[in-house]
Design a protein that fits this description.
The protein is α+β, with helices and mostly antiparallel strands. It folds into 6 domains: 82 residues, Helix Hairpins; 238 residues, D-amino Acid Aminotransferase, Chain A, domain 1 (2-Layer Sandwich), CATH 3.30.470; 98 residues, OB fold (Dihydrolipoamide Acetyltransferase, E2P) (Beta Barrel); 102 residues, DNA polymerase, domain 1, CATH 1.10.150.20; 89 residues, 5' to 3' exonuclease, C-terminal subdomain (DNA polymerase, domain 1), CATH 1.10.150; 68 residues, 3-Layer(aba) Sandwich (Rossmann fold). Helices cover 38% and strands 23% of the residues. It is built from 25 helices and 28 strands. The strands form 8 sheets. Strands 16, 17, 18, 19, 20, 21 and 22 form a 7-stranded antiparallel beta sheet that branches. A 5-stranded mixed beta sheet has the order 4-15-12-5-11. A hairpin with a 2-residue loop joins strand 13 and strand 14. Helix 3 runs antiparallel to helix 9, helix 12 runs antiparallel to helix 13 and helix 19 packs across helix 20. The N terminus is likely disordered.
Length: 742
Amino acid sequence: MDRASYTSVFIRVHPCLSVVLHMTLDDARALHTELAVQVQYHRNLYYREETPELTDADYDALEKQLRDLEVRFPELKTAESPTQTVGAVILEKFSPVVHGVPMLSLDNAFADEDVTDFEDRIRRFLKLPAEEPVVFAAEPKIDGLSCSLLYVKGELVRGATRGDGRTGEDVTENIRTIADIPHRLNGTGHPERIEIRGEIYVPLQAFADMNAKAQAEGGRTYANPRNFASGSLRQLDAAVTAARPLCFFAYTWGEVFGGEVSDDGFVATQTEALAKFREWGLQVNPQSAQVDGAAGLLEVYNRIGRERSGLGYDIDGVVYKVDRLDWQRRLGFVSRSPRWAIAHKFPAQQALTRLAAIDIQIGRMGTLTPVARLQPVNVGGVVVTNVTLHNADEIERKDIRIGDMVRVQRAGDVIPQIVGIEPDERPDTAEPYVFPTVCPCPLKTEVVREQNAAGTEGVARKCSGDQACPHQRTEYLKYVVSRRVLDIEGLGETYIEIFNRGGILGEPADIYRLHEKAEEAKVIVLEERKRQSTARQEKSGQAVKKQLADTDRAFTELDKLFAAIDIRRDLPLERFIAALGIKHVGDTTAKLLARAFVSERVFHDTLVKAAAGDEEAFNAVKDLNQVGPVIARSVTSYFAHPYQRGIYERFIEQVRVQDAEAVASTSPVSGKTVVFTGTLEKLTRDEAKAQAERLGAKVSGSVSKKTDIVVAGPGAGSKLKTAAELGIQVLTEDEWLALIGG
């Protein structure tokens, strides 16, 4: 093919990874079609379904790929391209509303340089002399749902969503239920007809309360306030919308005419327009500011970023607009965006918020874990309120104190963590945090440093009360009923907590004896129902209408629970061992022990001998592959304690333990280390792992020089790349199944 027919195209394939691809126009057209489909798919999820799969940052990166492609291949940019449209097609359940002036979107800025470039472009376009200041209006970018309010002679006559920018959805009756939106404008002198636009949002605390209530009642919960606001406004029953805590900020307008003013004479600046909105009884964001130049914009951006967590509502950046309306008209529009405005986004991975408290959680092994309670803040599309601080040494190293302004990020866009503090924002009253020296449990037992595998002190602190500590006992039981251990359907954390407090559940054997205490269990459940109902009524001020009496609900739920427990009396040996809660023995080590000893009696008798000092029995455990002396001592220690031996004996009386399946020693993958990556289509990840282990393979979560085989499905990423670099054998799922005869 002629080299001249190739064009170098910069494609952003991930927010942190860029590659340069050489492609023909035909290749570019195929990629453009694929990207356009993806962008429209995610727009529909965001605007129509309120169930986004991407963070805002990832969506912005995806759309930028499409824009970059169209820059290199202008012939691909058509009127139908997602880059030339906004929002999503309206839902058929609402009547369409054609906007008098299209509701367009804004271009984004992500770096300080983008803001400087924004001012420079305006100066060049308007041919302004260097000494002429450019005045901007800046305001927080509310992360909510855009809507338009049409007032005729001061009366609210229609409310509509943005929709696709040109046609929105008629939600007038729902709009009328929002307290922030006046049915009639205050004062006089407003235009005969004006379309006021703004953002509907939900305060963070109200969102948290509504989600907690929905979860308690088994209703739908939402990932973030924006989705909740959208779902609340777009209800067919206005009474549902009225019950939701929706608020509104006005920030711009569409068509204006008639009365004492015309479109040109309505106001002279954006700042004056916001002042008018306030006079008319509309809510305007108090953080709005009038500033000079890019330097002033960045100062506002940094200030609002610091104050973001204390605002009480979600924002994802700051919007900048040229303040003078005559300059706005001269600047005009490019495609679907105005030249005179831009949205400066906050980094999606980080946010600032205030640390309100530090609580201590007790794990099943007694480890004390400090947890930061934060003022709610949106980080990468998820509202974060709690972050683990790991241990006392970590708090001291970062000098984290109650009251600090902290910087939160989601590691890998999943796990939230505090990466640092803002020293200038520290209150004068903030004192160094003093880690507890006694357990918060009623026993107030001493807190000691854990011993690590080498026998020296580790960084973690633990309660010395062991199973006598009610916190440890509760967490242990939650672990026992979890999916990877007993996996009992319907026996969740709430039941564990209330049955433990009620004195009818303290160890694994009690789970299988719950049916013997059905009357006590019913009373405990009814008391919990009453407590929850009272709490909801106190918060909402309204009685909750029940479709089923509490007594009937308790009977029905407990009958189902007892049946689910009975199904789990037949236990594989590996799950039985895991349920013992022995230190260092999770589900993976439990599988190793089960396959080594095969039967429960052999496992029991060997460990009883080892606990009694039998060196041969101890070595039989210690010398197992991937076990070693630390785990061997831990398992032996368990059987040396009469209290724990009693738990074991009572547990075994209630269940039927199945022998483990012997590990194949002659399979083609026996002794090999295997890594699964990407999406498996014929097996679940757990099924594939179990299958490989039965055949004698070791399954690892990472690729290294010790890896023998990588099984890669669609979507395989960095692990596949590492395997190629190390020359490791890579198989598809079908090739893997053919190899093992599956």
